Every structure is written in C-alpha cells, then in structure tokens.
From TrEMBL:
The chain crosses the membrane at residues 303-322, 334-354. InterPro entries: CorA_cytoplasmic_dom, CorA_TM1_TM2, Mg/Co-transport_prot_CorA, MgTranspt_CorA/ZnTranspt_ZntB. It comes from the Bacteria. One of its GO terms (molecular function) is magnesium ion transmembrane transporter activity. Belongs to the CorA metal ion transporter (MIT) (TC 1.A.35) family. SUPFAM superfamilies: CorA soluble domain-like, Magnesium transport protein CorA, transmembrane region. It comes from Amycolatopsis pretoriensis. Its main location: membrane. It catalyses: Mg(2+)(in) = Mg(2+)(out). This is Magnesium transport protein CorA. Mediates influx of magnesium ions. Alternates between open and closed states. Activated by low cytoplasmic Mg(2+) levels. Inactive when cytoplasmic Mg(2+) levels are high.
C-alpha cells in the first residue's frame, strides 16, 4: 500500500512537484497549564491571558502573576518571553530538558532549574528495571511574576497551587514565596523517594547475605545506577538553595530566606542519605562478588576432588589396558576382583579425605 502523506507535509502532487504546507500553529493556551493573578495573597477570579495578567498587576502596582507551562515549543514561549522580558539564554535552557540544577541571574530575573523525581512502583527491587524517574522544573522569578516550565508528566504543580491558594498569608510574601513552595515541594519528594529506596536497599541487603540467594551483581549495579541518577538531581541543587537562603538577590525578601534555610536543611538530609546509599551499594557489590568467588572456589574444589577420585580407576585401567604379556596377576583368576577392590578402596579413601577437609 503506498504511503499516505501527512496533512502537515505536502499539498498536491502535480507535474511541478509537491507544494510545502506550513504547520498549523498551536495556540499558547495548549501549553499554559494555569495563569493566575494574585493580589494581597488572594487569587483574582476570571481567566487571564499572560498579557492581561501582567497589565492588571502593573496597573494595580501590587500583586504578581503565576504562569505554569508544560513543555512549550520555541514559538509559543517567545510571546511570554517578550512580554516579561526573559533573557534569551534562559529561555533556550527552559525549552531543553536534561538541564543540570542551577541558579542564574539575568538582569532583574532569576532562573532556577530543579529536577523532580518519582519513585517507580515495582514488585521487587531484585527484578525491577527502573526505580527512579526524573523530570525538570524551570522557574523564572521576577519582581511581579513567576513562570514555571515543567518537563515530564509527573512534575505537575496543580496540588501545590491549590494549597497555596488556600494560604493567602503565605502568598502575601510575593512571587518568591511560590519559588520557595516549589523548592520545598520538590525536596519533600526527594525525602519520600529516598525513604522508599532505603527500603529497597534493605531488601537487597537481606538477599545478598541470605544463604543460597540468587541475587546477581548486575541487579545491584542497576540500583546503583538509579541512585546515581537521584544523586545528579539532588547534589547540584544544594548550592542554588544555599544562595537563595543567604540573600543572593533582592527578589527574595528576608521573610522568605528563612524558609529557604529549612529547605537547605532538608536537602542536606537527602544528600547524606544518597551518599550513604552509594557507599552501601558499593559494599553490597563487593559482598556479592566475594560471595560469587567463594561459590566458584567451592565448586572448583568439588570438581577437583571428583576428578582426583576418577583418576584412580582411569590410571589403573590404563595400565592394564596396555598389551603386555607380563603384567602382575594378569593370568590369576582372582586378579580382576583384586583390582576392582583396590580401585574401590583407593576411591573411598580419597572420598573420605576430601569429605573430612570440606571439599565434598
């Protein structure tokens, strides 16, 4: 069956070839999760575009705008960037996932990148292929606005926004309070994920030191890889949070800085847990390798013992298999039973010696 061209690709096929068709533009509303105006900590009713929202705030000379975006493309975010005066380098970073956690200042705007994590449910850590899934949140903080750009399907902020809507006293501190709430929300998820990973590592540890367990070093390496991914999300975030807690910019008032210190303390706890996980998994890898080596040595001793026992009848049979006329007891009628008795006696003696020494 011939291929059918897509609607956004070619239009018409004549002698002069295909005519390219421009893709249908996607409205900005498709990427905007929410756009709200907050005045005196209260959310104003109604639906707002980003232009109307910032006009309303600047007309009142109070309040701020909170816009949430989900994986926008360059064309759609350009309008917001122009309206709020976002730096082009920060916008470029916000469009691309797989950014390292960081904090950068562009004129009167802060750009913060944090990684979100989600614990992937599984039956057992010894059979799981994935334990941690990561996403990203980019936050633009200005004097009267905060813009969040998220990548990934598990990093939504709808629940956090509802909690803040119910806490106007907190929102009266300005858009920096939203940034703190986001950082606190992300770090709390770190604590939850590390707690569940700790349970998985405890299960693995019990399996490693259990007699005749079948856990392999590869599964521990997989867990170590997941912990490494978590470490890449947690460790680089310590410096940005510390800078926000120490008064890196006037966009974060003194009242909010104290809250960031609490986030920094929680993040330190998470970092210590992750470092401990890494060390413990390294120990488990060493223990597993040692256990495998011990098992291999035991198997080799058994194989060697049986090979030594089998060598006795093989050697005697080889001697009597040679075509010589004058071999001891060759023509004696009790020669065959005697040889068999000698073979069995030597084999039993060797078996008893190896058994006594723990080789069999």
């Amino acid at each position: 069956m011939p291929a059918i061209p897509s609607l956004g690709g070619l239009r018409g096929r004549g002698n002069k070839g295909a005519v390219p068709v421009r893709p249908v533009p996607v409205p900005l509303s498709a990427y905007v999760v929410d756009c709200a105006v907050y005045v005196s900590g209260e959310r104003l009713s109604g639906r707002w575009t980003h232009i109307e929202a910032i006009k309303e705030v600047r007309k009142r000379h109070e309040g701020f705008v909170w816009i949430g975006l989900h994986e926008p493309d360059s064309e759609q975010i350009q309008g917001i960037a122009e309206t709020f005066g976002l730096h082009e380098l920060a916008v470029e970073d916000a469009l691309e996932a797989h950014q390292r956690p960081k904090l950068e200042r562009y004129d009167d705007t802060l750009f913060l990148v944090v990684k979100t994590v989600r614990y992937v449910e599984h039956e057992s850590p010894t059979t799981a292929n994935e334990i941690v899934e990561t996403g990203e949140l980019m936050v633009f903080l200005g004097r009267d606005f905060v813009i969040t750009v998220r990548h990934g399907n598990h990093s939504g902020l709808a629940r956090l926004r509802r909690e803040l809507d119910d806490d106007p006293e907190r929102l009266q501190l300005g858009p920096a309070a939203v940034v703190h709430a986001i950082a606190d929300h992300v770090v709390d998820h770190y604590l939850d994920v590390t707690g569940r990973i700790e349970n998985d590592i405890d299960v693995m540890e019990a399996q490693v030191f259990a007699p005749r367990s079948q856990i392999s070093a590869e599964q521990i390496y997989l867990m170590k890889r997941e912990v490494l991914e978590l470490r890449r999300a947690v460790m680089p975030l310590a410096t940005p949070v510390q800078r926000l807690a120490e008064g890196y910019t006037r966009l974060v008032p003194d009242e909010v800085r104290s809250y960031f210190r609490d986030v920094a303390d929680h993040l330190t706890t998470v970092s210590e847990r992750v470092a401990a996980f890494d060390e413990l998994l390294s120990t488990l890898v060493d223990a597993t390798v040692a256990k495998i080596s011990l098992q291999q040595n035991t198997d080799m001793r058994k194989i060697t013992s049986w090979a030594a026992i089998i060598t006795v009848p093989t050697m005697i049979a080889g001697i009597y298999g040679m075509n010589f006329d004058y071999l001891p007891e060759l023509h004696w009628k009790f020669g065959y039973p005697l040889v068999i008795t000698v073979i069995l006696g030597i084999c039993l003696l060797l078996y008893r010696i190896f058994r006594k020494n723990g080789w069999l």
